[in-house]
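Assemble and predict.
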Amino acid sequence: MTATQETTISELDTARSRFREELVEAGLLVPSSVEGLYGRSGEFEDIVDTIDDHVKAAGAAEHGYSAPRFRFPPVFPREAFERTDYIASFPNLTGAINTFDGDNKAHAALLADRSDGKDWDHHLESAGTMLVSAACHPSYSMMTGTLPDEGRLLDIYGYCFRHEPAVDPARMQAFRMHEYVRVGTPDEAIAHRERWVGRGLQVLADLGLEAEAVIANDPFFGRAGRMLAANQRNENLKTELVVKLYGDLDDGTAVVSCNCHRDHFGHTFDIRTADGEPAHSACVGFGMERIALAMLRTHGLDRRRWPASLAV
Amino acid sequence: MTATQETTISELDTARSRFREELVEAGLLVPSSVEGLYGRSGEFEDIVDTIDDHVKAAGAAEHGYSAPRFRFPPVFPREAFERTDYIASFPNLTGAINTFDGDNKAHAALLADRSDGKDWDHHLESAGTMLVSAACHPSYSMMTGTLPDEGRLLDIYGYCFRHEPAVDPARMQAFRMHEYVRVGTPDEAIAHRERWVGRGLQVLADLGLEAEAVIANDPFFGRAGRMLAANQRNENLKTELVVKLYGDLDDGTAVVSCNCHRDHFGHTFDIRTADGEPAHSACVGFGMERIALAMLRTHGLDRRRWPASLAV
């Protein structure tokens, strides 16, 4: 690492930590004892709702009708999680849910360990569920089988979890994502991804944000992950819409993600198009908290002083 | 168990399972491979929003102003969870979150176990977080210290998790609760609980539901729990508003809960009133999915045929 890089990283950390302090002081976010977990104030939620109005309008304009809405809870079956191979690609972001399933005696043993200040996790076992890591993940298992001729379009909005504690308020462990998911032929999937790059940039422009579309990759884990990331970039499967929250101190924050999954979910969940081929899928995901933070960073923390079209 | 009881339980199971089938066939709920986890359709969400409009109106009418809103994610710090002693009282409902925090080599070992069809949970460790089991739980740690003279009133809405897989669609593992939480003197807490019994019954009546207030207890775990439950009933700390979803086959389903916590949270989180005493707290929690299901059961699955004031 060069001296310049060190300076920049330190300035970036300072900028992130100062932004977080400002958000907390303004009462927009409530901190907790864990990095990346915050309560949201009513005002913060109003901003999220304003953003969502724009997202919904863009969805209706893009597709010419209201896509069927599905709202999944933040927890989904481990059996579906297993099929996605997420534990192979993103083990470090995963949230597996454990619970206690024993009797009175086992419970007494748990409490004894706990009162001795010992770890009590070994008294728990898998609850058969996982935290949802992308809003669309719980939706694929409901499409197993043959799609209608025109494929499917879904409007999905829900909480996601990624275990990546960070000072940057824009890197939360729990956050909401609003997605439009297209499942159909390879061409339909590619077109969905492509069209939402432009449509997403328009949504951000309407919110007064300067955004840029960049070719990106998922943060695949470890050595093997580097190859997966390179492939994803080479095949141009992921485009992120990026807003600079911290000036030139970093490359910006991805607030929208446009992804083509090829036949990954079609193959995994046995979803077939009308002609019997494995379905392809694509999704656009709006990171609601990140867009809200980008707006607060761009327009200031006092919403009454925002541009008239976005103010309260 | 008598023959009559057996018949009744079997009839009850049939009634629950039939109601679930109807909800799935109508597209209101999307089943998953795990009991008690469902996707919600847009129409189901519209019903939840209608209910919430009534809850918010009741909150404004009861308190004369809009209580500050706080929205917490479905995951909160284990350190705060530990302080509540929830693992002692409700271990079987708990959701502890584990993640992978190892290196490439440890990940390879996890994947090797997985591909051999072996359990891979022992490669994970605590993520330092827990699933939220009551919407208000994440709020108490932010009140540590001395309250303002008038105490505090909070409007909290969020996802809750309880590990209790069941066929009954009204017993979900993940569901939303809208709460009004009062923290202040003993009298203020008791008055909050008492007043919301009547106010809650009115909300349910406005939604066309026949509800009844009954003295209740939490489902404390095991032998020791039976005493805690008896105490809670004797001290009249919990009142549930109950609607009969399955006629006389059971005692009805609790859709709203009015609770006085005494100084449990004040003591645990060191929250003091202006005069230095441990704060008392009380909350009313509206179970949004359960109320929606009660409405679907009462008014029918086709919302266009609902009473004019509640229809689309």
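Chain A has a mean pLDDT of 95.
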